[in-house]
Amino acid sequence: MARFHKHLNITLGIISWFLCFAISLSSALQVGFYTKSCPNAENIVRQVVQQQYKADRTVPAALLRMHFHDCFVRGCDASILIDSTSDNQAEKDAGANGSVRGYELIDKIKAALERACPQKVSCADIITLATRDAVYIAGGPNYNVPTGRRDGLISRASEVNLPGPRFTVLQAQQSFSARGLSLNDMVVLLGAGHTIGVAHCNFFKDRLSNFQGTGTPDRTMDKALVKKFSGLCGSNPNVNPSTFLDQNTSFVFDNEYYNQIRKNRGILQIDQELALDSLSAKLVSNLAANNNNFRQSFVKAIVKMGNIQQGNAGEIRENCRRINY
C-alpha cells in the first residue's frame, strides 16, 4: 500500500508539473509580442494580405481553413506549412489537407518579414495574424491577436485527424472537445469557416442522389439545391467542381450561413445537422438572429483556438516550408 501511495504521489506530481508547464507556456503569448523585436511586423502582414486580396477574394476562406487545420493537429505551430521530404510525408500532404491553399501567400509574408527583421517572427504567428487581417477585409471583426508562438519541428501526415464533412454533431463535438473547445466554439468556428468557404462536389455528392445508401437524395436538403447541384456536380467522377457553402453572401464574413442552414440550405451534411440536432439547434438559432453576437463569439473562439498547445518549444523558421538546419 505504501508503495502504491508513493507511485500515486509521483504520478500526481508529474501531472501537476505538466499542467503548470502547459499554463506557463500558454501565458507566453501576449498581444504586441513583437513591439520591440519587430515593431512593424503586424503592419507588414496586413499589407501583404491586402495586396493579395485585391487579386483573389477567396484569400480569407483559404487562411481560415489553413489556421483551423494547423491548430487541430499539433496546436498552432505552423506544422502544416512544412514540405514533405523523401523520408517523411508531412501534414500538408494528408488527404484531409488536399484542399488547403495559401502557402504561397505565407511565403510572401515571411519573405517581407525576413527583410525587415530576420528570424524574429514565427510562421505560426504569421498564419494567425494573416487570418485575422483577411477576416477583417471580408467584413469580419478586427481583434487583437496574442502572439509569441514558436514553429514546430515535427509534421506528419499520419497525425492528421480532423472532423469531417459527414460527421454527426456529436462526433464533431468530441473532436473539438479533445482540443479544449466547447460546443459553442465549434458552432461558431464551423460557421466562420463556412460563411465564406467552398466545398467540392465529392464532399456532398452523396446527398444529391444516394444519401447513406438509400438511393434517394437527403430529405433534409432543399429540393431546389438538390436540382442545382445535381447539374453542377454531374456524373463524371473525374470532374469535381466546387460551390460556396453560403449561397447568399458568399464573400462576406457574416452570420448568413446560419440563416441558410435553418432553411435546409446546408451544403455539407455537418452544416445541415448543426441546424437540426438538438445539441446545436438553439445555438444556430441565436447566431442566425444576431450578427453582432456571431462576431463577438467568433473573436472569443478564434483566439481560444489560437492558444491550443502553445509554448516556447520550437524555433523561428527562416523558411516556413522547412525546419532550420
Describe the structure.
With 325 residues, the protein is mostly helical. The protein has two domains: 31-159, Peroxidase, domain 1 (Orthogonal Bundle); 169-305, Peroxidase, domain 2. The protein is built from 13 helices and four strands. It has helices at 2-26, 41-55, 59-74, 103-116, 123-137, 169-177, 183-195, 206-209, 223-233, 256-262, 269-276, 281-289, 291-305; strands spanning 30-31, 146-147, 198-200, 242-244. The strands form two sheets. A two-stranded antiparallel sheet has the order 1-2. The chain has a two-stranded antiparallel sheet with strand order 3-4. α2 (41-55) crosses α5, α3 (59-74) runs antiparallel to α5 (123-137) and α11 crosses α12. The longest helix has 25 residues, at 2-26.
Produce the secondary structure layout.
Elements: H1 2-26, E1 30-31, H2 41-55, H3 59-74, H4 103-116, H5 123-137, E2 146-147, H6 169-177, H7 183-195, E3 198-200, H8 206-209, H9 223-233, E4 242-244, H10 256-262, H11 269-276, H12 281-289, H13 291-305
Helix pairs in contact: 2-4, 2-5, 3-5, 7-13, 10-12, 11-12
Binding site for heme b: 194
Enzyme class: oxidoreductase
Main location: secreted
